[in-house]
Amino acid sequence: MSKVLDIHGSKPNEEGVTEVGHEPTTADRLYVPAIAAGLKTTIRHFFKNLIGKEKYTQTIQYPDQKVEYPERFRGMHRLVPREDGTSRCVACYMCQTACPARCIHIVAGESEDPSIEKYPVVFEIDELRCVVCGLCVEACPCDAIRMDTGYHPKPVYSREDADFGKADLLKNFGRHETEGSRRTARPPATAAGTGRVDRSSGDGGAGGATGGY
Amino acid sequence: MVKVNIDGRDLEVEAGTRLIKAAIDAGIDIPHYCWHPRLSVAANCRMCLVEVEKAPKLLPSCEIPVRDGMVVRTASPRVLEARQAVMEFMLLNHPIDCPICDQAGECKLQDYYMAHDRTGSRFAGLKVAKKKAQPLGSTVMLDEERCINCTRCVRFMDEIAHRPLLGQFDRGDRAVIGVFPGRPLEDPYSLNVVDICPVGALTSRDFRFKVRAWFLKSADSVCPGCARGCNMRVDHYENEIQRLVPRDNDAVNQGWMCDEGRFTYREIHDPKTQITTPHVRMASGEYSPISWEAARQKVAEMLAPFVGETDGSLGLALSAQQTTEGITAFVELAEQLLQVDAYAILGRAEGEGDDLLRVADKNPNRAGAELVLEAYSIFDEGPDLLRRGLEEKRVRALIMVGGDYSAGDSADVSAWTAALAESKVICFASNWTESARAASLVLPLASYAEQDGTFVNAQGRMQRIHRALKPLGGRKTALEAATFTAEALGAGARWRIRDFGAAFGELKKRTGLLRGVEPLKIGPSGVSLEADVADGVQGPDADEDALGQMSSSKRPPSHPTGSSSAPSHA
Ligand code: SF4
Ligand code: SF4
Ligand code: SF4
Ligand code: SF4
Ligand code: FES
């Protein structure tokens, strides 16, 4: 009596919505069989954990135990500094353009250093809105923003506190060394091997670009 | 007329037309840098090379006039190879600093690289370093490295602005654009070179680093800077205007705009003078903000003596900065609900004019305001008569729509403000002008960028403006302000003129000039209200100067007469 819809062959209806799945059966409507099926799994896990060899338990005794994060774990953002400590960011807005959560806010300004020209007067990331996708890191042409800090944004008491400014993000650099990272540390950023002209060294644009235009 | 065949399509074009123009008009795109439809031909970039049958070499299509029987191919393998080579050559020394280049996103180098090149660099040497961020004057910034030496900017200053301030210096890969020592690029039309520069070599110092081009949203509008009514695009971001750039309209501004007009947006966002909430003048002379509800009561109280049959001593001052529809709504309000005795069209003070674009009348819609008063057979007293009326107490109360008052010298301004301060004045204004500062009640009025409407320029061309911004704060458009006033007078139920279309419809009923004009169908370049508009619009006190300006403004800008440099208008 239940009408099973063909999942793979379904065509979108006039609103463009494809219906999948099936209409609820009497068993579905009673709920009890589904609850019993769930309880079966729970009871099986209980006894397996109690007497079995292979345990199901996944609990980690945080903070005594910590998980090892994978190499490419995306943690809190940091801005990569130049040698003089200023941010490498040239305020190109590529990260802001790429960000699907629209949580990066940049205000560009004219730098006094003629070899730099443009720099971010304001650089803010709203870590509450961030979806930790890493697109900003991918988009940056200067390798100025990274998510390799190895830790999460700290809990905050108000929404404003989750807006991290330029100074905070620059401070994040190297914090994984002092505070202990759960991720294998990588050597600090250099432009070598990025295939890009490092304009931060102030060569006035005379360097040879090796990458595509 | 000659017959040519471009990419297999038979076209019939005027003899002497440049090949590139014939192709572009037929919808066949030929990439180009140095050619500009409104400038002379330089043929120096070689991006526009095409294959012409029987010609031994590829030919620059921007230079070659069409000949009868020509067979042209714009996308043959030879052409594509040449284009790629030209692109590679152009990018040899290019800094490729797109991340910090304001042109990125609207750059022809980027577009053509993606369309015609897409290869990596094979260049192993050192790039030629040139100077970056060099101000050419107060408005334009030059980056010598990004320049592709197309000389569009040089030709513009020479041929259109008639002030050859820019030149090309040095040779070969050292060639740079520059100004002569002690003669910076200071010209009322300087920012046009930024628009026509196909790359990011010339950028606007005003717009510099403000916002990336791809974040901008745009609305088509008309410049409120003078009675020329240059067609422009309002580029805005986060409810703030970022820049104003010209749109092409052969009948009005070709493709140019003056710098003064481009900066008119500053006033809208000037936090020091903008008005966004109702204000009432206290006994001390200070203004204090009040709620709209309090403002409504105040309006009702101030206008109560002028409802119905009275001896009439109320004046209505309409600013030539307002839209035709806003003005119509207030005139309707006066006709239907109030006893108004004196009408006057006010506006901004006269300024500089020239024979390229700028008109001395700095109001975008004087002709529109005159058209409305004419349609209602109302006599326009003008600013002087109205002021005398105020001084002689013939006019004891005044509604000002737009806080403008055209005054040449400061003596006039003080006499005017003194006359206003003596009377009961309700002033709808966007900014704290002299007039607003003399009013008893000041209500926030939307600027042109915050509303839809039409302007009629000095040539009698009716053009549409489109809303770009959400009204700032509590600002009301002139139409909404009329509705608000009608409601304050308790006539909200029978007040019909609540939108653009209704106001236009009322006006259309009363004048033959708008016959056949559909407000929502006015195209991007506007409609000419026929030759008789000029006569129809001018009131009994026709302004001779304005007329003189009108005839001179109809003249197209002069062009050099060299045979190869006759510009073809696109
Ligand atoms: S990680 Fe994703 S969401 Fe977070 S700031 Fe970067 S681009 Fe935006
Ligand atoms: S993409 Fe990189 S250089 Fe560009 S604004 Fe973001 S952090 Fe700065
Ligand atoms: S001129 Fe164009 S290609 Fe050159 S840096 Fe600017 S955006 Fe990039
Ligand atoms: S500055 Fe721009 S318009 Fe002028 S020659 Fe260079 S590329 Fe052309
Ligand atoms: S557009 Fe023809 S040579 Fe430049």
**Small molecules in complex:** iron/sulfur cluster, FE2/S2 (inorganic) cluster
Described by the principal axes of the CA atoms, the overall outline of chain B is elongated
Structural classification of chain B? alpha+beta
Number of distinct beta strands of chain B? 23
Terminus-to-terminus distance of chain B: 18 Å
CATH class of the largest domain in chain A: Alpha Beta
If strands are numbered along the chain, what order do they take across the biggest sheet of chain A?
2-3-5
Distance between the termini of chain A: 63 Å
* Tally of DSSP helical segments of chain A: 6
Question: How does the major sheet of chain A shape up?
Answer: 3 strands, antiparallel
Could you spell the SSE succession of chain A in H and E letters?
Answer: HHEHEEHEEHH
- SS-derived structural category of chain A: alpha+beta
Low-pLDDT regions of chain B: 531-570
Radius of gyration of chain A (CA) equals 26 Å
Number of H- or I-type helical stretches of chain B: 16
Protein model, in words:
The complex is a heterodimer of chains A (213) and B (570). By secondary structure, chain A is α+β, with helices and mostly antiparallel strands. Chain A has six helices and five strands; from the N terminus they run ααβαββαββαα. In chain A, the strands form two sheets. Chain A has a three-stranded antiparallel β-sheet with strand order 2-3-5. A two-stranded antiparallel sheet of chain A has the order 1-4. In chain B, 26% of the residues lie in helices and 18% in strands. In chain B, strand 8 and strand 9 form a beta hairpin. Chain B is elongated. The interface between A and B is medium-sized, with 27 and 30 residues. The complex binds iron/sulfur cluster (SF4) (4 copies) and FE2/S2 (inorganic) cluster. FE2/S2 (inorganic) cluster binds next to loops of chain B.
